[in-house]
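Hey, can you fold this?
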Amino acid sequence: MCGIVAYVGHQDAYPILIEGLKRLEYRGYDSAGVALLNAQDELNVYKAKGKVSDLEASVVGKDISGHIGIAHTRWATHGEPNQTNAHPHLSNSGNMALIHNGIIENYMSLRKELEKRGFTFKSDTDTEVLINLIEDVQQSEHVDLFEAVRIALNHVVGAYAIAIVEKGHPDEIIAARKGSPMVIGIGQNEYFIASDATPIVGRTQKVVYIEDEQVVRIKLGEELFIRTIHDVEAIPYVQELEMNLDSIEKAGFEHFMMKEIYEQPRIVRDTMRGRLHPDTNSVSLGGIVNYEKQLLYADNIVFVACGTSWHASLVGSYLIEFLAKIRVKVEYASEFRYRHPVITPHDVVIAVSQSGETADTLAAIKLAKEYGAVVLGICNVIGSSISRATDAGIYTHAGPEIGVASTKAFTSQVTVMFMLALRLAELKGTLTPEYRAELIQELDSIPEKIQWTLDHSAHVKDIAAKYKDVRNMLYMGRLQNYPVALEGALKLKEISYIHAEGYPAAEMKHGPIALIDKDMPVVFIATNRNTYEKVLSNIQEVKSRNGKIIAVVSEKDVTARGMADHVIEIPDCISIFSPLLATIPLQIFAYHIAVMRGCNVDQPRNLAKSVTVE
């Protein structure tokens, strides 16, 4: 959701900024812009509705010189997507330009006050209000830009990640953040600023993640200078960037989504590496080792998450309750923060997020801490806000996920939850050594079984071709495969714009069966041995009403194959592991339908990869 790139150094800024914006395109946006300060101290601002390529086309023949600049991709919140509302925004004097991710909640009251003081506004954005608030403070308090930003942000309610350039200062950028991510890359006599690390990859390995309510002076020839908005100095913590250029390129695939689908055997193995020990039939999770006692004796383990991470958490709840016999709740983070949940210091809250920046999940973490609960995290991005806000956690090691529709993040999160459930069961003694060993050996074999599923998925494209023009689909599963049904339906909705819903299969007769006719395809995940006969009954109910049936079944299944119109096989496995396998063909199915419908697979309309605002 929105993207920030900024540069100050010895190189031409424009090519670096444009490349950075292109790397951030996966976040979702509707307009783009750039501001450059040239050698004549002229601040040139160029903006365009649409894609970064539209911005590039609009600056042909114009002055794009300068060694300092800021750039932005916008996802509209205040004001429609157009050139005027696009970032960067200039202050009334034209001396400063600002880019901003986030939402200023009290922008309207600030705007009215500024209008009384003679300021005028060209756009409908909260961002233009912010840059003029900073200019007002600078003029009235007679302070430099750094101090003006620090003072102004004390009057702001909301979330922000900002970068500002000012005429007369060709070697300095001022940046700040609260509730919206920002990272600074430190090069050789140059600095790179971005909303995530992808624009920095390949340029430097030294980065600093800015904390909430910090303001940073980024000046050539000087170390980073950081103070909080409350005027407390902070020491920058320099880290090594754990990302490489190959991980953010398509590697021969037409889309990032398909590349990431095919990465799943490796990322599941990477997520288990050093944690799953099939030689000793044990699990070790070093990131949370100091909180194992709290997990074991918690009144409740409460997962808070959104979207795909919520589906992964549903799988996790089943696993922990089934294997470790600990009570688990799963909450939408967006609802949790507002519904006055009953949370006590005897509960453990686990926040799950791919990006580690999800605004609703971060708010849920804050609320859980206020209630005194231990808060752990499961996320993919090292140094992310959630990884810093939680007491401890587990990284998924999925690598960068560029496609907006999450794929490998889901399987890596579910893999973590398997290991967490197995570890808690081991500590609590709820499994016999023999059964625990069988489960661990099965989990160790899952990457190879995912690869088998991928190798035998060519016919899924043919099935997709038959259903690319449908308007609705239903997905059905039971127990741990119910979240798989939800996730399969979500993937189809996200990237093909076909309406789809997931249901527990047994709930079909309580309403959804009214929808069944010859035009309603139904996907059944029919792999669970414990409920197989029950799902067959549900399949028969659809068949008798002329519904079209796509069945995901275990290898060599006979009965469901004879009933379904189309069959997709996955390797046979212990039933509780089927989510890690059954999800794969549903991702591929959605992908092919979206491609055939001419949809933008990696950047679906209206969606953003990292939802950093409400």
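Oh, and this one too while you're at it.
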Amino acid sequence: MAYQALYRVWRPQSFEDVAGQEHVTKTLQNALLQQKISHAYLFSGPRGTGKTSAAKILAKAINCEKAPVAEPCNECAACRGITDGSIPDVIEIDAASNNGVEEIRDIRDKVKFAPNAVPYKVYIIDEVHMLSIGAFNALLKTLEEPPQHVIFILATTEPHKIPLTIISRCQRFDFKRITAKDIMKRMVHIANGSGIQFEEKAFEIIARAAEGGLRDALSLLDQAVSFSDEVVTVNDALTVTGAISQEYLNQLALSIKENNVALALKTLEDLLYQGKDETRFIEDLILYFRDMLLYKTAPNLEESIERVMVDTDFQNLAQTITNEQIYEYIDILNRTQQEMKFSNIAKMYIEVALIRLCETKVATVHHSDDVQNLLGKIERLEKEIQALKENGVTVSQEEKPQAAKRAPRTGKGYKVQTGRIHDILKGATKQDLQLIKSRWGDMLEMLNNRQMRSQAALLNEAEPVAASNNAFVLKFKYEIHCQMAMENNKFLEAISSILQEITGIHYQAVGIPENQWNEVREDFLKNNMDSSGDAQEEAEDDPIIAEAKKLVGIDLIEIQD
């Protein structure tokens, strides 16, 4: 007989064998014993977590000759027939390849016929989210009120694509990612049953690489068994998963901590020579420091450690590297990972990142020296103040609050171009503002298409509030976003050129933070009050116009006699 993959040979045949889904199997077992079987179920969750297997086990338990039972006996004719697929009353349908209306109409026409060999006819529709809208509509009424002898079990990895009208007619069970501990437990059981010799740490690597899917773990185990000689070793597991060994990760972390750039770059060269992928390398290094941070802050949390095995070297490094350094390491690596996505020379970005990581320790030491110097100056000043007090000189208490107020003004805030905004307001028209606002969404979309997503994100909390025939005022919710946008000349030129493309007019943007906009606008109105004539004075006295100003603001009101 031809060789079968491990995940096929060891497919669960009872609820007890379904790993890591006790919240689902316990509920189904109680329903079976109490004979409270629903007419339709929806099993959703990540791939390889046991959805289809649970559906088949449920079909066997319902039709078992010993029913009502919590587990199928797997010995009676019904259980054996459903297992080997010889009973036609349990129908498995792959919705990915049978997603049309005609296939569902065929189900609807045949569903009224009684089962031949077992009490219940069970339809298992896998990847049900692949059905077309027409197919869902054809299934709708049948799914809501099927004959008493029919049960539907729908399985999907993407429940958000299923219409709510279908979901509301089913009992929904959400399968979760299986923990590495449960995956490893199941792998050990399968290895012992199959006569596979292994190293325990090798199974740990495979279990973590599977990312919550037992089927993926068993596929990787199949590869590792084929690759190994007699025993599945750690090196075999690292080879088939493409992961980086703990030894190399510890060596990299040590070289970064000790500011050893040469060792860090040599380690990188060794890994790339072994065929490790640059993207996988940067991901493993991020997860290494992430695990180190979680180990330091929450060592007792189950499944908190994702990629790292807590050995002696790792524990020693975790004790010597501070949380602040780890934050900086992860920040540098995360930025590098984003930059690598848009480059064909990923190795260069990794080399630069490693050099920067090695230099962070130097920066930390300099920072520590600065703090010590500052503390020394404060101590000397306190001694001088104490000496002055002893000589009869007192420090004014009124000056202290003033000094406290001046102290926070250490940063250089954004300077609003008030004069230019006044010029725009003098020539502002409603038509120009409406034209810019009507094409604002198109402008943002074109910015994203031009690979300026990070810059375009600055405009998420911004809106045009006034416009003349050649410029407009852009109000930002946050001052920092305003400063970043207005200091980027390339970004401002892109906005102007795009607006010119879609409106035919060359507009220039002038930014202002939201907290300063009202002040500048009121100042402009106050200075131009005399030129506004009697209409403005009448507007101040008219209660209707005053109420309108409160509702929508003065810049959206046009007063006409």
